[in-house]
Amino acid sequence: MLDALLRYSLKNRIAPFVLAAVLAAGGWYAFSRLTVEAFPDPTDTQVQVITLFSGQPTEEVERRVSIPLERALNGTPGLFRLRSISLFGLSFVTLTFEDGVEPYLARQQVLERMGQAELPEGVQPSLGPLATPIGEVYRYTLQGKGADPMSLRTQQDWVVRPQLLRVPGVADVVSYGGLLREIHVEPDPVRMAALEVGLSDIFEALKKASDNASGGYVERGSEMFVIRSLGIFKDLKDVEEVRVGSKGGVPVTVKNVGRVTIGYAPRQGIVTRNEDEDAVEGIVLMRRGENPSVVLKGLRERIADINDRVLPQGIRIQPFYDRTELVDTTLLTVFHNLAEGAFLVVLVLFLFMLSVKASLIVSMSGGCRRTSCRWVRSTSGSSWTARSSSSSTCSTGCTARTCATTSIRGTRPSVCPIAS
Fold first, then answer.
1. N or C: which end of the chain has fewer CB within 10 A?
2. 161-to-24, 95, 131, 138, 274 alpha-carbon distances in Å
């Protein structure tokens, strides 16, 4: 069959050039759509179950949250390892699955089994983002002249993060630093004792107060009017007017037993950058299996739009880590090594064969082979690791030496390993 192909190519000399052009065009198209990684992702299929149990010590979190979740998730199909970490107010369960288990199938199975766990009232476990440990592709800080850490963190949580989550391929945006804005009710024990109000009364009143209620509808002729009661808090004054009890037939409100202020959640760390001693940082996690170049391009476009139109005057997103720089540097190094390797192959073949035409033909055959590999990778949905391609230079050199040896021994060129 190979002899017939060679005879056909010699009789129709335009056919090999057309085929090579089609192969080159297809290879370039496949390479432009291929997922390029700066380094390989060796991680297994993992699913994280994150549960908040606010205010509870580690022992209670372990006993009432982590252990029931482990019992419910144990025996999940394809499960290889199950581990849990219990901290103050936080349970973190990690499930590692066998090779070949699809991430979406694993997450679906975990979701189905989480509902079987007997957890305390109000405790709701959730799944971690569909990302890998090397999925951190972008880091930035939110900076603004004269802006305080609380306003920066508010902008990060309510403006920047929702905008970045809309970028295709982004799994999650993690926020660090700043002050998390809260509304604090600070009861006065003396006034509470005088007005006979307990802490449980204040908790229950605040829990029921901020809510809207529906009253159905009222028909009037051919019209229908929807009735509803508005009770959502709009400002601090609404919180102060919440009724917590009565004394002598007179209603007692929150402002009678304490004061309402704007505060922040207790800090457990701080983020600094250069001269900024209290910065707000955001970490963008890429979804598993996505193309980092495409995701980062969309991120840069969205961040430019946020800086220009969304954020208040003077507040800007300042990136300090972009995976694109690493990918571009790695690709430049790989292409440089491949070019040097190709030159050495041509030189060695020329020294052995004393024919420039034969050297170029063999080198082009190696290039066509790599183009075919990229085409296959692109159609199969796999990714290409830039670092792993450095072995192509060694592979090309080895096949060149083999081809030169078979040519010297008088073997027909059709059995050259490069053509196979």
1. N
2. 42, 27, 17, 13, 23
Distance, CA of 333 to chain centre: 27
How sure is the predictor about 416, in pLDDT bands with cuts at 50, 70 and 90? very low
Collapsed DSSP state (helix, strand, coil) of residue 292: helix
SS3 of residue 109 by DSSP: helix
Q: Please, which residues have CB within 8 angstroms of residue 313's CB and are 6 or more apart in sequence?
A: none
Domains along the chain?
Answer: 2-38+327-419 (1.20.1640.10), 44-130 (3.30.70.1430), 182-264 (3.30.2090.10)
Distances (CA, A) of 340 to 71, 337, 346, 369: 57, 5, 10, 18
With 90 as the cut, is the pLDDT of residue 66 above it?
yes
Residue 314's Cα: distance from chain center in Å?
28
For the segment 275-285, what is each residue's pLDDT rounded down to a tens digit? 888 899 999 99
Q: What is the pTM for the complete model shown?
A: 0.73
